[in-house]
Amino acid sequence: MPQSLGGSDEPDNLALACSRCNGRRYNFTTGIDPKTKIEVSLFNPRQQQWADHFIWREDGLKILGTTPIGRATCARLDLNDERYDEDDSIRKVRQFWVLSGWHPPDEDPRQD
Ligand SMILES: [Zn+2]
């Protein structure tokens, strides 16, 4: 729960995030699932497991939501930089990570 919506700054209400994700999350707690058009809670890394809601696309460049929460979180946080298709998009960075053999993490599920 964001502080601006009454959440505390106690450790149990905080989650480590990069500035990119933190900025895009802003104080949103919900998003729209693009498939069902239903508003759902965003993924909560403190209470939910990443692998229950997301997979990597086969090429490792895109995160795909597998549930309404996963899809709504991908859309709200623009986890694949689809709104800003710039040269420094996260997909290009992931491409270097894939070529280097660092990505996607072995423990993360991938598209078949
Ligand atoms: Zn991030």
Structure, explained:
The mean pLDDT is 93. The protein has a domain at 29-100. The protein starts with 18 loop residues before the first helix and ends in a 12-residue tail after the last helix. The protein is globular and about 45 Å long. The protein has a two-stranded antiparallel sheet with strand order 1-2. A two-stranded antiparallel sheet has the order 3-4. The chain contains three helices and four strands, in the order H-E-E-E-E-H-H. It is α+β, with helices and mostly antiparallel strands and 112 residues long. 25% of the residues lie in helices and 11% in strands. Zinc ion binds at residues 17-18, 20-21. Residues 17-18, 20-21 line the site of zinc ion (ZN).
